[in-house]
Amino acid sequence: MINVPDRLLCISLIREAVLSGCRLEKACEQLGVSLRTFQRWVRDGEVVRADGRSTTGRPPPRHKLSETERQQILEVANSAEFASLPPSQIVPGLADRGMYLASESSFYRVLRSAAQQHHRGRAREPSPRPVTTHCATAANQVWSWDITWMPAAIKGKYYYWYMVLDVFSRKIGATKCRKRNLPNLLPC
């Protein structure tokens, strides 16, 4: 959307270019405005209107949740029974009882607008982890290691496979296979 002062500037520049001998279409093209847009701008003479999309009043959608429905959703979500459950579990729980208040996404939307869309449940909230600071620009700069269980021929028995990996080239640098996990086999 181009605001009114910029439209007036564009119109004056295009008219100046046309008076200097430039074709109207080429002048509009240079400013990135289509010919039809320029014609719409100057249709009413010297009066240039603002873009109607930003000033128009739009009625609310007919299926928008009413304030009482929003309050009912918040009451259900904050009730003792559902206080620790996310909307993805609240909505099916209500559906099992034959109740339908709103869709799952509407529950999320209402909780977010009421600043209640946070970790819900008895489990601990996930803690943010720092971003990895290691950056390999060539081989043999950064190494990583991993321990993997490999099943043995006997059910319930496992071998521990230790692997050291070059982060840059993704080539395996060293491997060891042991019958039991040795905590000091690889330095940390």
List the topology elements.
Elements: H1 4-19, H2 24-31, H3 35-41, H4 52-55, H5 67-78, H6 87-96, H7 104-113, E1 143-151, E2 158-166, E3 172-178
Description of the molecule:
With 188 residues, this protein is α+β, with helices and mostly antiparallel strands. The chain has three domains: 4-52; 67-113; 143-178. It has helices spanning 4-19, 24-31, 35-41, 52-55, 67-78, 87-96, 104-113, and strands at residues 143-151, 158-166, 172-178. A three-stranded antiparallel β-sheet has the order 1-2-3, with no helix packed on it. Helix 1 runs antiparallel to helix 2 (24-31). The longest helix has 16 residues, at 4-19. The model has no long low-confidence stretch (mean pLDDT 89).
Overall SS class: alpha+beta
Write the H/E string, N to C: HHHHHHHEEE
- The end-to-end distance, rounded to whole angstroms, is 57 Å
Alpha carbon gyration radius: 33 Å
The oligomeric state is: single chain
The whole-number mean of residue pLDDT values reads 89
Number of beta strands: 3
**Mind describing the biggest β-sheet?**
3 strands, antiparallel
Q: How many domains make up the 3D coordinates?
A: 3
Pfam family, one: HTH_29
Protein name: IS3 family transposase ISPa31
GO molecular function: nucleic acid binding
